Amino acid sequence: MSDAVEKNPWAGLKAFTNARIALGRAGNGLPTAPLLAFNLSHAQARDAVHQPLDAQTLRAQLEAEGFATLGAESAASDRQHYLRRPDLGRRLSDESREALAQVGASATHEAPDVVFVVGDGLSAFAAAKQALPLLQAVRRRLQDDAGTNEWRIGPVVVARQARVALGDEIGELLGAKLVAMLIGERPGLSSPDSLGVYLTWAPKVGCHDALRNCISNVRPEGLPYEAAAHKLHYLLTHARRLGLTGVGLKDDSDATLPQAPDVARVEAV
């Protein structure tokens, strides 16, 4: 008895991509296995959007690794308001604004060169999984600069119901030269836990997207932590040197990566 599933001749290419290719065919439809896999991915993407961020656990994990932390909430009171009113996710709640303003105005507060903000965005999964290892990787690089270009790193702010622009208000209140918003990206059907990083010089309320640099798809299956940290360190260094981010700051970090021997041989040929 022959197999009812017709194999796709492209099946060998599946080893090189997570894209849904070469799924095969059973009659006029998909075989059961890829259909179930699609339904699972769709459910994971929906969960990523609706799952709340456990901010207390994330802050505890950060503090256990030596990061000072602060908490913040946007003006969106819950997930439903956050999804329906993007504008509310771009500004702080009254309580968080007052609390951060007090920190920024305190006599013991020293204006930082950079403040990292971890926001749930559209995937709390991403913030919970990817933020800590990325912060550890970039902190090592910033600490290595201590001999020549020392960095004052502010407390990591863990923000719930956050959009990218929320980092602008946080950075302004803390007097930061730069703010790096680490935020969950809109989940895809093969990437429910992808983290984005948005870097802004002289953050303040009203900054627009042309003033930012973005690093996308930070996760082990996408842009690995060390590679993302290399890019972020490069952008931080040159943003401080030039006094800008956005369209005026080009990401040429790949040119500073060590060249793999195989690549060198190919180019030599």
Order of helices and strands: EEHHEHHEHEHEEEHH
Please identify which CATH superfamily we are dealing with: Ethanolamine ammonia-lyase light chain (EutC)
How would a crystallographer describe the biggest sheet? 6 strands, mixed
Write down the Rg: 21 Å
CATH class type? Alpha Beta
Count of helices?
8
Which architecture per CATH? 3-Layer(aba) Sandwich
Category by helix and strand content = alpha/beta
| Beta strand % | 15-25%
Quaternary structure state of the chains depicted = single chain
Total number of domains: 1
**How much helicity do the residues have?**
25-40%
The CATH topology: Rossmann fold
Spatial separation of the terminal alpha carbons: 52 Å
As laid out across the biggest beta sheet, the strand order is: 3-5-4-6-7-8
What is the overall shape? globular
Describe the structure.
The C terminus is likely disordered. The protein starts with a strand and ends with a helix. The protein is α/β, with parallel strands linked by helices. It is built from eight helices and eight strands. Strand 4, helix 5 and strand 5 form a beta-alpha-beta unit. The protein has a single domain, classed as Ethanolamine ammonia-lyase light chain (EutC) (Rossmann fold, 3-Layer(aba) Sandwich), CATH 3.40.50.11240. The strands form two sheets. It has a six-stranded mixed beta sheet, with helices on both faces. It has a two-stranded antiparallel ribbon with strand order 1-2.
